């Protein structure tokens, strides 16, 4: 592992010069969308360093503002060099804010950890950050005295960090088990009655389920198949949850499970109970549900139903700059949504420039700025899309075969 170029002494000296700016300006320092983007790279770096220094301030509100500014900066630019040079300081900031902070500060720090791992990509630096933060984040994740919204951010961050740095390791197995422990609290009781949970708790369970299904996309098919044998009926019950996000998370997770098992030619077939529930949710028009929730739910479950019944894969095209990303599988959709969740408005920029995202989504090296993109017909694009999916399916099968089998 390459040594970091930063030090705590450097950080302290910079802190003394710039911290007062945050005490006076609670709106941030140029990364929150209210001010203009820094005009130069040096200006960008100076403001980022000032934000990092401000995470050492005594006022919790100032620390939260500083964390938000850092996150905004790393989302708005692909700052690989900056993050790599200051990895240990950034890791220290995240760990301290998660351990000693409260509420919003902890959640913001957790999301920052995920964005840092996305910026660094796979490699020794990301592995080091993941190993340093995992224990602290796991402790907070399972601590019932911590607010559910904070734990939701922790679950999201752990899932994505593990996806980038911890696939195939014992750490990944431990995180999978902890995430399942969380969302299994929403499983129906033995008498078929749903547990009585508040909205923040069900939001936590949905976040845990999304993170768990993300990690399933890089697990051996045998792991996913064993889980399906044991718990698929429980996931199907979650389709009756009163929370729309948990229903959608359950439906899309079921689609991921079926896709992985079908790719591996494992014996899995939908029950009449499953297809009936999916059909009902895909056409739900009950007035007691909010109109926005009904629309979101119907859209998701129409796609899930088509896949479960007819093996029809999702088909979406994301345009960014002069390029297109084809989302043509449930695993790929889950991965895309996970990155979107932490990158937000910066997703397209990172698709253009970030080596990790271009590798995950098989986009190839970033396009030269002046290189024209040759237009192709819709038919050619469709044929290339089909060929690409077949190649990915074959590649994923080989990768899963190489992974060490773990017992549930």
Automatic annotation (TrEMBL):
Alphabetized SUPFAM superfamilies for the sequence: ARM repeat (SSF48371)
InterPro entries: ARM-like, ARM-type_fold, IFRD, Interferon-rel_develop_reg_C, Interferon-rel_develop_reg_N
Segments of skewed composition (Acidic residues): 23-40
UniProt protein name: Interferon-related developmental regulator N-terminal domain-containing protein
Similarity remark: Belongs to the IFRD family.
Start and end residues of each Interferon-related developmental regulator C-terminal domain: 354-403
Region ranges (Disordered): 18-40
Highest taxon in the source lineage: Eukaryota
Domain Interferon-related developmental regulator N-terminal: residue ranges: 12-309
Gene3D superfamilies, sorted: Leucine-rich Repeat Variant
Pfam families: IFRD, IFRD_C
The encoding gene: 107371967
């Amino acid at each position: 592992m390459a040594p970091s170029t930063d030090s705590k002494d450097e950080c302290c000296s910079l802190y003394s010069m710039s911290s007062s700016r945050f005490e006076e300006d609670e709106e941030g320092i140029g990364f929150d969308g209210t001010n203009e983007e820094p005009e130069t790279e040096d200006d960008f770096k100076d403001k980022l360093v000032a934000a990092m220094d401000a995470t050492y301030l005594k006022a919790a509100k100032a620390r939260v503002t500083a964390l938000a500014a850092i996150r905004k900066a790393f989302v708005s630019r692909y700052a690989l060099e900056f993050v790599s040079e200051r990895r240990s300081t950034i890791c220290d900031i995240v760990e301290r804010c998660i351990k000693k902070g409260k509420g919003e500060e902890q959640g913001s720090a957790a999301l920052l950890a995920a964005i840092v791992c996305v910026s660094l990509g796979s490699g020794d630096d990301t592995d080091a950050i993941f190993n340093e933060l995992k224990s602290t984040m796991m402790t907070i994740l399972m601590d019932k005295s911590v607010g559910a919204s904070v734990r939701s951010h922790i679950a999201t961050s752990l899932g994505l960090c593990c996806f980038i740095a911890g696939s195939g390791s014992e750490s990944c197995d431990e995180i999978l088990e902890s995430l399942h422990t969380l969302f299994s609290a929403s499983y129906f009781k033995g008498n078929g009655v749903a547990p009585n949970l508040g909205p923040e708790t069900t939001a936590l369970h949905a976040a845990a389920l999304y993170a768990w299904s993300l990690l399933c996309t890089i697990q051996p098919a045998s792991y996913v198949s064993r889980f399906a044998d044991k718990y698929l009926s429980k996931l199907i019950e979650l389709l009756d949850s009163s929370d729309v996000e948990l229903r959608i998370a359950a439906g899309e997770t079921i689609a991921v499970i079926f896709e992985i098992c079908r790719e591996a030619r494992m014996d899995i077939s939908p029950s009449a109970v499953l297809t009936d529930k999916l059909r009902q949710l895909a056409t739900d028009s009950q007035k007691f549900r909010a109109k926005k929730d009904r629309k979101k739910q119907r859209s998701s479950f129409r796609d899930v139903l088509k896949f479960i019944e007819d093996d029809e894969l999702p088909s979406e095209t994301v345009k960014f700059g002069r390029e297109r990303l084809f989302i043509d599988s449930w695993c790929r959709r889950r991965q895309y949504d996970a990155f979107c969740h932490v990158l937000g408005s910066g997703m397209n920029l990172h698709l253009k420039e970030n080596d990790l995202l271009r590798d995950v989504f098989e986009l190839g090296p970033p396009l030269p700025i002046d290189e024209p993109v040759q237009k192709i017909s819709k038919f050619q694009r469709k044929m290339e899309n089909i060929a690409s999916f077949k190649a990915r399916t074959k590649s994923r099968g080989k990768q899963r075969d190489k992974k060490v089998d773990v017992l549930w």
